[in-house]
Amino acid sequence: MNAIVKTGLSAAAVSALLLSGLPATAETIFLSTQARPIEEAEAMRNEVLGQYDGEVDYIPQEDGPFLNRILAEAEAGKVSVGLLGALHGNFPVLASADALEPIDDVLSGLGDRKLIGTFVELGKLGTGKQHYVPWMQASYVMAANRQALQYLPEGADVMALTYDQLAQWAANVSAATGERKLGFPAGRKGLMHRFFQGYLYPSFTDSVVTEYRSDKAVAMWASFKEMWKHVNPRSTSYDFMQEPLMADEVWIAFDHTARLMDAFNRRPDDFIAFPAPAGPEGRGFMPVVAGLAIPANAPDRAAAVKLIDYMTRPETQIETLKAIGFFPAVEMDLPDDLPRGVQIAGAAVSAQAASADANPSLLPVGLGDKGREFNKVFLDTFQLIVIRGADIDKTLDRQAGNLRKLMEETGAPCWAPDEPSSGACPVK
Amino acid sequence: MITERTLPYWLLAPSLIFLLLLFAYPFADAFFIAFRAEGQWTLENFRTMIEDINFGLSFWNTLLLVLIVVPLQLAIALTMAMMLTKIRAGRDLVLYVWTIPLGISDLAAGVVWLALLSERGYINTILSSLGILDGPALWLSYETPVALFIAVVLAETWRATAIVMVILVAGVQLIPKEYNEAAEIFGASAWKRFTKVTLPLLKPSLQTALILRTLLAFEVFAVVVALGGRDLPVLMGEAFLWQFDYRDNGVASAYAVLTLVISIAFTVLYLRVLRVKEEAQ
Amino acid sequence: MSGIYVEQVRKVFGNFEALKSVSLDVQPEEFTVLLGPSGCGKTTLLRIIAGLETETSGTLKIGDRQVNGVPPRGRNIAMVFQNYAVFPHLTIFENIAFGLRMKKMLNSEIEPRVKKAAGMMHIEHLLERYSGQLSGGQRQRVAVARALAMEPEVLLMDEPLSNLDALLRLEMRAELKGLLAQSRTTTIYVTHDQVEAMSLADRIAVMHGGHIIQYDRPIEVYQNPANEFCGGFIGNPPMNFLETNRENGHCKVAGARLPAPRAGSERVTLGIRPEDVVVTDQTAPEHLTGQVTVVEPLGPHNLLTLSVDQQLFRVTTAADSPIRSGQEVHLALAPGRLRWFDSENGQALH
Amino acid sequence: MADITPDSLKDERSFLDRILPRWNVWQWLFVTVCVILCLWVLLPIYLLVLSAFSPRDAVFAWPKAFLPTDISTDTIAFFFGVRGVLSAFLNSVLVAALTMIISIGLGAPAGYALARFRFRGKDSFRLMIVMTRAFPIAILALPLTVTFIKLGLYDTVFGVALVHSALALPFAVLISSSLFMGIPFELEEAAWTMGCTRAQAFWRVVMPIATPGLAAAAIFAFVISWNEVFAATILTLQQPTLTAFLLTTLSESPLYFRFAGGFFLVVPALIFIFAVRKYLFSMWGIANR
Questions:
Q1: What is the pLDDT of residues B155-197, one digit of tens each?
Q2: C225 and C274 co-located in one domain
């Protein structure tokens, strides 16, 4: 009878020997949370990394598995990933788990190009060491179908809208077409929390944390809830606004430039891009910064450094812009043979940055692995007030409590547009 | 030495050890995390879980989903199983068609039903061509929770009825034909024969099908996310968010432990309600 | 060929004692039948001899080898199962050759042996078929051929004919008798059909409640049953039994005075087979009187059912006998055929 | 006897009568329900394939076209071009094949034990096997990844196959035990009396009869592994299975790509189940009652 037991085990043993996984060649594994959609990933591999004189395997990963993998490799002490590419928000989790290699030396090695100062500073994550080298940047802008322009309220300049005009515009559209054509990316993978942190709050309260439950905030939520009456209810499942735009479900949308690029490239004559609207405290907007970092005790540090140098070269920055719609993190002037989509988005981003009432805010720093819970506070507030129609004051009180607990736990200092604070950023 | 008495244990050993190695350690680790925070034993994670704004909704949604989908699937699967015994020509083909969903991953099922039910989807096309609708109508949004719930029930029923049917088809086969014929001779109507002969004898299969399907139903996730996004929170969806989005595997494990406890409760319930006496095997 | 020696074998299933210390010795080449009602332990005994069941206690020998604990394959036996157990995934040829292949015999040896066994059972034309395509009778023949092909020391058969229809059973019985006599293999045959036992057995072991009551030649068991059960179980219609009470050396029942047996307690039972009773009209002290209740013309003879001393009593008479139901008759008992049993334990008395 | 003339032989029934079988109301109802149930399964899949093969903007079109009017394979073609799809496809096949071998190799003996023996702890074992599915694999992610990295099983086809086998094992055990129950024990006993050891009897008699059923159980394990998404994603890096590859690239790709991905997932599974449809009946018990 033990013949059966033997065969069962031997089958497992044989396959263990046979298929213990193909040995990884000497290529650098470039793990990234950016350019995940299939066309963009292919563009990264062929156009951007095509000319790199070295073996690189570009693997896009969702944030969850990305962080899970690096933390697991760090904990197990066997690191296979060569280079990391991610948004500013992903790095604090890795930094607080000491999974990142300090790369101040790499930064000094890139002397021949001018990396944008504020982004280099961001790369320190509020500590003395350089955790990531700025890789590329983007921002959030608004996009609109040309058919919607006819419903613009009197005297409204689309390139310098206010939130009230946006609300009025949306109302006109739904009155005219009977459908609610304003859209926001409030789906599971949407970037709605950035809209509140970088756009709505700074525009209405000139703050993100301290004024979280001030009266201005109450007025803000009230007006936003009013506007939401003209927003397409499917917004709570929109992740990439380019899709509903191309499906004509939505005519006016807010999203990350890279998540609108497909629409601009595919139908450049149907869509326009324009800066985010302004509120009483100015035109709040926030940059999206992506960086390159080397995992602690990475297999081949030299190769990683070589790849960082390659990625931050001006010509590669331009290829990246063309391929995935992210703008250079290096101070350079853009050539004019760029694809139509990039030109459309680029104009809106620079108009937004150069606007008179510009009120730029930075990305949160020092939140450690609580970054996502920080976003959850804003999303929960939105869910309760706008979707479930809860009382604004009570909700803000409760959520302010969570925010305060979060700030004390992480001890994160305030960041623009809040006034700098010595200890943890206070929540009034 | 392998003797007559110990032989069964030798045969079970390989699969038992395999499961222990692969499941026991991570399971203990995850279970352990649920009850610890900052280094000491606490129910902190459970408290955060319960206080979360989505907890109540996700709990009731999951429970309701299970209580509707599982019985519905059982009914459909039972009808299919019974019909299969009657079909002669093309029986293999019909069985093949009905077991196709077994091969469909919930990823693909989510995509398919999204295409069907989205406001510019196929069902709306049919409805508007029939004149019921005059344009694209919205089913999958928080404003129409009932429609969204029905959409998820439809998708889940489509995806996971096959597993129940296969178990029941096997169960029906194991019942010797003579019992049914005997009952027929005693003048039992088709319905009577079904309730008095087939169903009681099908109890063991019903029990297995119910337990298995309920366990999997509590882990429903991919289809709900594909159709409902954030609008229909479910336990596993929240666990996934806490694990991967909010990076707090303590609360994630708490959700998992809760799911486990409910699943065990349902299993015990089935074992008691559908108790199959040894002799009546 | 070797005999089979069973000494005080007991078998307990949980708290049910299936076999209560049974002993049996089967001579080489002898055809022994284990006969008894279902649940009397006959199949359990057979399975213990085959090694499919392990005995709780007792010793078991095949030839001069003790085989306790030896697995079936080591006992050089062959067995025919009640449901034939013909392998559905093998052709009939392979079924019959199965045992020989396990003995690692060469094809050149296997081929003739299979053909010979198939010939004996008249199934040469079925060798390439599968059991699914065969009738019950054919499958049964394959099972027997398969066992014979192995030319075992001992052949065990578990009610092989019980699943066949009456006519086929009769035919198979005759064939089996001829075959087994010819092959002269020591055989143990289990059945609940006493006709089969009488026709096939060299010796019959009548079993009841886990005991072997009697182990003797068929005619012995038929004519001198060891107890009431044996008498009643064998013979169709069964032996008649009449309660009698003893009076100074004689037993009186239904008007008859008969010489009482020497041994036994106060009350004794008289046993007589229906064919050993003659209906007469003379009266005599040793004649019984009874009232005929039913007359059944069965073709070769008539079966009379009478009420004697308010007890059921059957007599066979010639097919053309004039006796009608309701008639009062006198019954003469064939002298040598009278048997006495102790009313308490049913044991035979001499 | 009326003489049989050609026209008396002519069939008077109308054309329709002749093709439609003469069924009573119940039979008509039976057939319609049967057809509806078949459509209920097939229609969504047809639409998936249709969307996968229609041009990109057809996916956003309103109203949707039901008939395959304009077919374009550029989404599908693009898929083949993407680096990694083919190797992911191969990985999926390898993992699924391994899962089949391991889950049947370990599951069949356990199934045999459950079918043939009555022993203490039998029911608790059967329940325990099923209950392993109660704990969601998503939550075992981190500890599992760390262990696998330490054991060197990380990012290997065999590593993923181990986890998939753990998922498929409960089904393998349940299916094989009901399979063996369908095989009369007397066949084994007959083999013993004909010179077989217990193991020889198992391999020469029980296995050949159970093979079709086990083949179906193996395909069932294959499908479970083929469709598993989560463990495959977190445990692989350069060796993703097709589902893991699709999950990472598709969840954010435009809708038309998700249909192509869905197509790639669905078609192989359909083919496998078709290959084994005859055995589906014997998967859970021999039908020769």
A1: 999 988 988 888 888 788 777 777 777 777 777 777 888 888 8
A2: no
The number of distinct structural domains making up chain C is 2
* Domain assignment present for A293: yes
Rounded CA-CA distance B144/B153 in Å is 14
- Nearest Cα residue in chain D from A260: D254
CB-CB under 8 Å, D194 with C78: yes
| CB C67 within 8 Å of CB C3 | no
CA distance C93 to chain D (A): 15
Same structural domain for residues C96 and C211? yes
**Average pLDDT value over all residues in chain C:** 88
> Which ipTM score applies to this complex?
0.78
Confidence of residue A140 (pLDDT cuts 50, 70, 90): very high
Concatenate the DSSP letters of all residues of A82-122 into one string: -EEEEEGGGHHHHHHTT-B---HHHHHHTTTS-B-HHHHHH
* Cβ contact A20–D152 (<8 Å): yes
Which residues form the domain of D34?
Answer: 20-72
Which CATH number belongs to the domain containing residue A264 in this structure? 3.40.190.10
- Is the pLDDT reported for residue D260 higher than 90? no
Give yes or no for B204 touching A (CB within 8 A): no
Check residue C1 and give its pLDDT. Answer: 67
Same domain, A335 and A383: no
Q: Is residue A427 part of a domain?
A: no
Q: Are residues C208 and C265 in the same domain?
A: no
In sequence order, which residues have a C-beta less than 8 Å from that of residue A166 and are 6 or more positions away? A182, A227, A252, A277
Whether A130 and A180 share a structural domain: no
- Facing A36 at nearest CB: one of D81, D109, D249: D249
Instruction: Write down the pLDDT at residue C73.
Output: 87
The answer to whether D and C touch (≥3 CB pairs < 8 Å) is yes
DSSP structure string for C147-196: HHHT--SEEEEESTTTTS-HHHHHHHHHHHHHHHHHHT-EEEEEES-HHH
Lowest mean pLDDT, pick from A181-195, A282-296, B143-157, B237-251: B237-251
Q: Do B230 and A237 touch (CB under 8 A)?
A: yes
Domain that holds residue A207: 139-287+360-410
Residue C184's domain comprises 4-232
The CATH number covering residue C18 comes to 3.40.50.300
- Residue C14 backbone class (left: φ over 0; alpha: ψ -120 to 50; beta: rest): left
Domain membership of residue A108 (yes or no) is yes
Q: How far is D25 from chain B (nearest CA, A)?
A: 16
Tens of pLDDT, residue by residue over B44-66, are: 888 988 988 889 999 999 999 99
0.90 surpassed by pTM: no
Q: Are residues D54 and D113 in the same domain?
A: no
Residue numbers in A near B245 (CB within 8 A)? 63-64, 372, 376
How far apart CA A57 and CA D28 sit, in angstroms, is 60
D275 within some domain:
yes
Smallest Cβ distance to B97: which of D38, D64, D259?
Answer: D38
Residues of chain D with Cβ-Cβ distance to A369 below 8 Å are none
Check CB contact under 8 Å for C150 and D194.
yes
Specify whether C179 is located in the same domain as C268: no
- Give the closest of D184, D194, D208 to C99, CB-based: D194
Chains D and A touch (3+ CB pairs under 8 A): yes
B35–chain A nearest CA distance, Å: 20
Q: What is the DSSP letter of C294?
A: E
Last residue of a domain, one of C232, C260, C277: C232
Task: Please say if the pLDDT value at position A295 is more than 90.
Answer: yes
Phi first, then psi: what are they for A330, rounded to 5°?
Answer: -110, 140
Q: Could you tell me how many CB contacts below 8 A there are between chain C and chain D?
A: 56
Domains and their CATH numbers in chain B: 43-273 (1.10.3720.10)
Tally of domains in chain A: 2
Contact of D190 with chain C, judged by CB distance below 8 Å, is answered with: yes
Residue predicted with more confidence, B108 or A183 = A183
Name the stretches of chain C with pLDDT < 50: none
Close Cβ partners of A156 (under 8 Å, ≥ 6 residues apart): A162, A165, A168, A169
Do D153 and D117 fall within a single domain? Answer: yes
